[in-house]
C-alpha cells in the first residue's frame, strides 16, 4: 500500500467523514479495495459514487484489471481470489479467501441486475461493491416498479400528512431497499466536480445515509475524494503526495500551449510558428488535429467540450481505431462509441472522459478547458506511471487556450522551463479564472426538493418502524411550507422530485433512436416537419425562447410547461442557425409533459444574470428567454427557463 492508503485503512470506521486529497493517478481505485479489507468480517457493502456513468464503467474496468493482477478469477461480475496483506504497522497479517461481486448501477443497467440485489444481505463470505451515481436510489425504485409508492409518499409530504391508510408491507420493503445499500462504506469520487442540481442530489443522499447510520451499531465512513481543494466539513483529511518510489504517479511530460489570438493561432513551441485562421480554442484544436498528416504512434487522447466540435472532428479525422466517449449513445464518422475505449489507439471525448477515466499509457494529449479545475483533471489523464510503463518515456500534452493578457503574462515566465507538477498546477491557476458554479442548488425549488426527499425518507422510516421511530422522525422532520401544482398522475410527484439526470429526449431523424433533447437542440439541425434532429448535420445553435414581455410569468415557481406556454406572451423558440426563425413550443413533443421553473434575478443571486443565464443554457436542460424583437443571438436574456 501507499502511505495514504495505509492511513485510510486505519481511518475507516474511526472517522465518519474523511476527505482524501489525491491527485489524478495516485491510486484512488485501489482505495476501494482498501475499503473492502475493512468489511472482511462484517460483509457490509462498499459503494463507490461517481459523477457520470462513463466513470462508473471505467472504474469497473480498473478494478477488474487490478483484481486479475492480484490473482483473482472472474465469471462476469463475480470474482474469487485471495486477499493477502502483510502486516501494516504491526497489524497482524491478513490472508483470506474472498468472493466478491462488483455491480454497476446506472440508467443503462438491466432490470435483472436490480432485481438480483433485492436478495442481498451483508455476508462476509461474499462481499458486495456497488459502483453507481448519486441518483441510484431513485433509479433502483424505478427499475423495480416501486416508484409509485415513493410518489405516493412524496404527495403526502407535500400535503403535510404523516399517516396513510394503506398496507405497511410495500413501505417496509422500501426501507429495506434503502438500508440494503446505506449500511456500509461510501467512496464519493471527484467531489469537487459536483455543481448545482447534481450537488443538491448528492447532499440529500448524504443526509439520508448519515441519518440512517445514527441508529445502527456499526461505525461507518464516507470518503470524499478530490483532486483539488474543496470546502466541506470533515473529521479527517488525508493527503496523497506525489514523489519518488511507490508514490510516484507521473512521467516526465512535455507541455505545448497553443495560444488562439482571435482568428489566428500561435504556439509557444519554437518548432511551429505557422498561423491558422481559427475562431476559438476548440475550433483550433479540431483544425490542428485534422491538418496533421500521419497518425501518431503514441496512444492519443483528444478532449473537447462541445458535442458539435466532437462531431466535426469525427467527421473529418482520417485516423484509425478511434474510440468515442461522449454523452450520446451513437458512433459518429470515424469514431466508434465505446464505454471506456482502453484498447483503442485514440480516444475522443468531452466531460464524459475528463474526470477519472483511467487509460494506461495515454501519452499524447490534445485538450482545452475554460477553468483550471477541469484543465487539471484533463491533463491528469496523460503521462501516468502504470505497471509496465517504459522507463524514461516522455508524455506530451498540447493545451489550446485563448490568448488573453492573463494567459500571456502567466506563460512569459514559464516558457522553456522545467516545472514540478506542483509548480505546473500553480501556473494553470494563474492562467485560468476559477470554475464558475451555477448555484442552481440555491433555488427555492432545489431547497424544497431536498426537504421533500429527506422527509419522504423519514416517512418510510417511520412507517416501517412504527411508534418506536415516531419521536426520532419528528425531531428530524423538515417542514414543507410551499405548495405546488402537480398533475394528478400516479408517478408525477416522483418524476418531479426524484433526482435523476436527463429524461427529456428528442427523436433522431436517421434512426429510431432518442437522445438528450437539449444536447441535440444545441448541436444538430432540427427538422420541424419530423420533430427530429439530423445527426448528419452538426451546427452550433444558440436556441432561446422569445416573448413579447414577461407578463403572466410566475417567477421562481415550478409549473407545467403547457401552463407556462398558455400564460406566456406569444412564445416562440428561435433557432437562427437552423434557418428556422420561429417554431411553436407546443408543437415539440419532447417538451409537452415537462415541468419548468422561470428563473429571473429575483430567484438567484448571480452577479451578471445575462452572462450566467447563457452559461447555464449551454449545458443544462434550459432555454434563455429574450423579450421584444427577434434577434440573431439572445445576448441579454431577461430570464432562464429551467426544465425539470
Explained architecture:
The chain is α/β, with parallel strands linked by helices and 644 residues long. The chain has three domains: 3-239, P-loop containing nucleotide triphosphate hydrolases (Rossmann fold), CATH 3.40.50.300; 263-402, Rossmann fold (3-Layer(aba) Sandwich); 540-643, no CATH class. Helix content is 32%, strand content 22%. The protein is built from 20 helices and 28 strands. Strands 3-4-5-6-2-7-8-1-9 form a nine-stranded mixed beta sheet. α4 links the parallel β5 and β6 (127-132). α8 packs parallel to α15 and α9 packs parallel to α10 (307-316). The two termini are 45 Å apart. Mean pLDDT is 84; it is low at 264-278.
Helix content range: 25-40%
Average per-residue pLDDT, rounded, comes to 84
CATH topology of the largest domain: Rossmann fold
What is the level 1 CATH name of the largest domain? Alpha Beta
For the secondary structure, the number of strands is: 28
Quaternary state reads single chain
Query: N-to-C terminal Cα separation, in Å?
Result: 45 Å
Beta-strand portion reads: 15-25%
Give a quick account of the main beta sheet: strands, pairing sense, barrel closure: 9 strands, mixed
Whole-number count of domains: 3
Amino acid at each position: 500500500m501507499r502511505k495514504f492508503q495505509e492511513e485510510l485503512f486505519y481511518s475507516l470506521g474511526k472517522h465518519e467523514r474523511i476527505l482524501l486529497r489525491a491527485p489524478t493517478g495516485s491510486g484512488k481505485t485501489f482505495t476501494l479495495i482498501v475499503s473492502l479489507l475493512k468489511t472482511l468480517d462484517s460483509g457490509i457493502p462498499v459503494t463507490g459514487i461517481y459523477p457520470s456513468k462513463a466513470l462508473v464503467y471505467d472504474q469497473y474496468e480498473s478494478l477488474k484489471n487490478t483484481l486479475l493482477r492480484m490473482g483473482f478469477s472472474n465469471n462476469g461480475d463475480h470474482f474469487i481470489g485471495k486477499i493477502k496483506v502483510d502486516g501494516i504497522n504491526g497489524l497482524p497479517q491478513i490472508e483470506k479467501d474472498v468472493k466478491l461481486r462488483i455491480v454497476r448501477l446506472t440508467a443503462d443497467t438491466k432490470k435483472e441486475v436490480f432485481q438480483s440485489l433485492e436478495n442481498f444481505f451483508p455476508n462476509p463470505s461474499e462481499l458486495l461493491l456497488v459502483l453507481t451515481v448519486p441518483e441510484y436510489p431513485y433509479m433502483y425504485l424505478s427499475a423495480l416498479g416501486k416508484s409509485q409508492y415513493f410518489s405516493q409518499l412524496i404527495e403526502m409530504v407535500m400535503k403535510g400528512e404523516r399517516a396513510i391508510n394503506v398496507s405497511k408491507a410495500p413501505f417496509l420493503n422500501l426501507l429495506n431497499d434503502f438500508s440494503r445499500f446505506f449500511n456500509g462504506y461510501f467512496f464519493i469520487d471527484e467531489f469537487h466536480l459536483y455543481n448545482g442540481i447534481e450537488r443538491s442530489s448528492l447532499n440529500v443522499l448524504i443526509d439520508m445515509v448519515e441519518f440512517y447510520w445514527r441508529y445502527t451499531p456499526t461505525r461507518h465512513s464516507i470518503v470524499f475524494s478530490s483532486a483539488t481543494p474543496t470546502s466541506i466539513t470533515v473529521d479527517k483529511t488525508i493527503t496523497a503526495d506525489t514523489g519518488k518510489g511507490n508514490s510516484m504517479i507521473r512521467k516526465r511530460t512535455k507541455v505545448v500551449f497553443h495560444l488562439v489570438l482571435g482568428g489566428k493561432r500561435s504556439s509557444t513551441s519554437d518548432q511551429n510558428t505557422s498561423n491558422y485562421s481559427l475562431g476559438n480554442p476548440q475550433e483550433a484544436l479540431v483544425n490542428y488535429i485534422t491538418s496533421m498528416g500521419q497518425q501518431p504512434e503514441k496512444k492519443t487522447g483528444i478532449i473537447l467540450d462541445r458535442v458539435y466540435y466532437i462531431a466535426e472532428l469525427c467527421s473529418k479525422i482520417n485516423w484509425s481505431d478511434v474510440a468515442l466517449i461522449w454523452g450520446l449513445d451513437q458512433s459518429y464518422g470515424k469514431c466508434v462509441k465505446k464505454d471506456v475505449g482502453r484498447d483503442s489507439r485514440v480516444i475522443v471525448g468531452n466531460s464524459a472522459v475528463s474526470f477519472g477515466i483511467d487509460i494506461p499509457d495515454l501519452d499524447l494529449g490534445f485538450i482545452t478547458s475554460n477553468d483550471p479545475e477541469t484543465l487539471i483533471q484533463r491533463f491528469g489523464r496523460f503521462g501516468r506511471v502504470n505497471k509496465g510503463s517504459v522507463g524514461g518515456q516522455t508524455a506530451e500534452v498540447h493545451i489550446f487556450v485563448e490568448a488573453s493578457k492573463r494567459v500571456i503574462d502567466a506563460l512569459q515566465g514559464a516558457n522553456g522551463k522545467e516545472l514540478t507538477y506542483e509548480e505546473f498546477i500553480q501556473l494553470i491557476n494563474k492562467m485560468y479564472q476559477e470554475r464558475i458554479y451555477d448555484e442552481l442548488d440555491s433555488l427555492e425549488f432545489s431547497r424544497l426538493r431536498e426537504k421533500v426527499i429527506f422527509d419522504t425518507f423519514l416517512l418510510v422510516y417511520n412507517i416501517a418502524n412504527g411508534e418506536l421511530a415516531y419521536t426520532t422522525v419528528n425531531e428530524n422532520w423538515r417542514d414543507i411550507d410551499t405548495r405546488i401544482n402537480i398533475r394528478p398522475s400516479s408517478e408525477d410527484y416522483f418524476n418531479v422530485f426524484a433526482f435523476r439526470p436527463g429524461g427529456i429526449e428528442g427523436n433522431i431523424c436517421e434512426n429510431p433512436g432518442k437522445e438528450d433533447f437539449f444536447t441535440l437542440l444545441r448541436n444538430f439541425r432540427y427538422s420541424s416537419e419530423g420533430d427530429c434532429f439530423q445527426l448528419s448535420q452538426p451546427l452550433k445553435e444558440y436556441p432561446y425562447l422569445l416573448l413579447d414581455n414577461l407578463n403572466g410569468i410566475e417567477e421562481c415557481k415550478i409549473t407545467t410547461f403547457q401552463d407556462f406556454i398558455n400564460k406566456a406572451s406569444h412564445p416562440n423558440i428561435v433557432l437562427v442557425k437552423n434557418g428556422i426563425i420561429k417554431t411553436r413550443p407546443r408543437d415539440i413533443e419532447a417538451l409537452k409533459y415537462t415541468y419548468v421553473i422561470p428563473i429571473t434575478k429575483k430567484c438567484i443571486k448571480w452577479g451578471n444574470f445575462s452572462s450566467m443565464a447563457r452559461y447555464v443554457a449551454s449545458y443544462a436542460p434550459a432555454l434563455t428567454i429574450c423579450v421584444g424583437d427577434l434577434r440573431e443571438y439572445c445576448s441579454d436574456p431577461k430570464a432562464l427557463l429551467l426544465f425539470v
